[in-house]
Design a protein that fits this description.
One of its GO terms (biological process) is positive regulation of osteoblast differentiation. InterPro entries: ATRAID, EGF. Keywords: Disulfide bond, EGF-like domain, Membrane, Transmembrane, Transmembrane helix. It is a single chain. Helices cover 19% and strands 28% of the residues. It has 171 residues and is of the alpha+beta class. Among the domains are: 90 residues, no CATH class; 28 residues. The protein has a 7-stranded mixed beta sheet with strand order 1-2-3-4-5-7-6, with no helix packed on it. A two-stranded antiparallel sheet has the order 8-9.
Length: 171
């Protein structure tokens, strides 16, 4: 289904996005809404050079058309084919870095690698683990966290109220 410069599926998710010749210096704050896109055309825009973090979460992206002077996000290791033309550069076939790094110990023992966009990956803790390097077993204790936070806030508030109340009585 075609809607303005977007191609949408039946559920309304963006499959294709045509932003060529829109005078964009960067894709903008709403660009992550297009993370379901399979093809994005950004040619003929004065984009800044490093777009790697711009495409965080774009795991389904398979074709990206950029201005000729902009490097494909993630570089040559993130794409199967990079083709340069006179006025554009086409990045095709996003690689899964989790399978192509050759380093099985990239993520901690209780974590697994997950693609996070072109040239990006993330380590996700397995069920039942959380925290730094997925070393903590069990779930995060919200009751303890908010209990300590609440009691500390209450204690400081009472202390400040008491010290400020004394000054209010003298003036």
């Amino acid at each position: 289904m075609l809607h303005a410069r977007c191609c949408l599926n039946q559920k309304g998710a963006i499959l294709g996005l045509d932003l060529q010749n829109c005078s964009l210096k960067n894709p903008g704050p709403n660009f992550p809404q297009a993370r379901t896109a399979v093809i994005i055309d950004l040619q003929a825009n004065p984009l800044k050079d490093n777009l790697t973090n711009t495409f965080h979460g774009f795991t389904q992206l398979q074709t990206l058309v950029l201005p000729q002077d902009v490097i494909c996000p993630g570089g040559i290791n993130a794409w199967v084919h990079i083709t340069s033309y006179v006025d554009s550069q086409v990045c095709q076939g996003q690689k899964d870095l989790c399978n192509s790094t050759g380093n099985p110990e990239m993520c901690p023992e209780n974590g697994s690698c997950a693609p996070a966009g072109p040239g990006l990956l993330q380590c996700v803790c397995e069920d039942g683990f959380h925290g730094y390097k997925c070393m903590r077993q069990g779930s995060f204790s919200l009751l303890m966290f908010f209990g300590i936070l609440g009691s500390t806030t209450l204690s400081i508030s009472i202390l400040l109220w008491g010290t400020q109340r004394r000054k209010a009585k003298t003036s």
